[in-house]
Every structure is written in structure tokens, then in C-alpha cells.
Specification:
Radius of gyration: 16 Å
Distance between the termini: 25 Å
Order of helices and strands: EEEEEEEEHH
Largest sheet: 8 strands, mixed
Shape: elongated
Number of helices: 2
Length: 131
């Protein structure tokens, strides 16, 4: 069976490297499934979960937006931040969610920034809970 090499990198370095059967994620245009020999593609990612199906099981990662580059034999995701499901600190993610929700109730607040913080926290909580 053919595989596709998956790399997820952040400014801190490589977060994930593996050969996969397929990858599922969400771009700004919608859901996408990527299999070996996929056509070349570059797409922006939302704050989303990335599911990577490997021979040893499904790996889930929380990705804080970024870009996806697909080649027939590789998938590269470049993101400001990404975490494997098992690395997520649930208490920290829940605290970030509460802080973002509190900020959204205040008058002089950058609403867009608070909403993005809330989306990131909710994504991390979701990825942690379905691992």
C-alpha cells in the first residue's frame, strides 16, 4: 500500500513526522481528505484538527491555522502552533477558554482577538476529548 509523508512544523521545530495512509483536515474552503498521489495543492488552514492515519493508528493534532502544502508523495503543514492530542493540557485549555469568554463580555476588548483565542481553546479541548 502506498503512503504519503506527513510533516507538521512550527517555528519551534518539527511537531510530527510520519508516513500515512491518509490525512483529514479543514482548509478555509472546507474539509479535505488527502491520499497518496494527491494533486499538488496549497491551501490556508483554519484553526482545526488534523487527523493522520498511520499503520499504528490515527494521530490527532490541534493546529492553530497555517498553510497546507500537498505534493503527490508528501503533506507539509506549517503552523504558528500545533499540539499532539496527548500533549494537550486540558486544564490549561479550559482556563484559556474561560479567559476568552470573559474578555468577550468586556466593553473595550479586541473582539476578533478574543474570538480567535476562544476558537483555539475550543479546538484544543475537542482534540483532547476525542483522542
Amino acid at each position: 500500500m502506498k503512503t504519503i509523508h506527513v510533516s507538521i512544523v512550527t517555528p519551534s521545530g518539527s511537531i510530527f513526522e510520519a508516513d500515512a495512509d491518509h490525512v483529514n483536515t479543514r482548509t478555509t474552503a472546507g474539509e479535505i481528505g488527502i491520499y497518496p498521489e494527491h494533486i499538488p495543492l496549497i491551501a490556508p488552514l483554519e484553526i482545526t484538527m488534523v487527523e493522520v492515519s498511520t499503520a499504528s493508528g490515527i494521530e490527532r493534532l490541534a493546529v492553530n491555522s497555517g498553510f497546507l502544502e500537498v505534493q503527490p508523495d508528501s503533506v507539509t503543514i506549517i503552523s504558528q502552533a500545533a499540539e499532539k492530542a496527548e500533549s494537550i493540557d486540558l486544564a490549561r485549555a479550559q482556563a484559556a477558554k474561560r479567559r476568552a469568554e470573559e474578555r468577550l463580555t468586556q466593553k473595550d476588548v479586541d473582539v476578533e482577538r478574543a474570538e480567535l483565542a476562544l476558537q483555539r481553546a475550543l479546538n484544543r479541548i475537542h482534540v483532547y476529548q476525542i483522542q
